[in-house]
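User: I'm putting together notes for a lab meeting next week and I want to include a structural view of one of the chains we've been expressing. I don't have a solved structure, so I'd like a prediction I can at least talk through. The sequence is below, exactly as it appears in our construct file.
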Amino acid sequence: MSNISIKIRPSIANLKPYSSAKEEYTGTNSVFLDANENPFGTLNRYPDPIQKDLKAILAQQNNTSRNNVFIGNGSDEILDLVFRLFCEPGNDQAITFSPFSTASFPLRPLSMHS
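Assistant: Thanks for the context. Below is the predicted structure for the 114-residue chain, given as structure tokens.
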């Protein structure tokens, strides 16, 4: 299997990942009002944006590493991210076959054509 990271656009590969203050905090506070968390009730947090627990479960069920699991909010988001990761704006073309009219939408911001 080839190393997929060598195919990622350099402008994307060189980005520094977002890190929230909550992730960097080492204290014991349990509620972060500056992150719009509700101090009352049990539904006071945003969902985990990188789905650590779900990826761990799926990885275990499929006998693979959590790093090999990708989760998206539907096929449109997944296609959009794939095109943004691997295709240079204005230089690449993609062929999409889909029963859904939105399949080519992710190509538009990259000046690509289907």
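A couple of points you could mention at the meeting. The mean pLDDT is 78. The two ends are 28 Å apart (CA to CA).

User: Perfect, that's what I needed.
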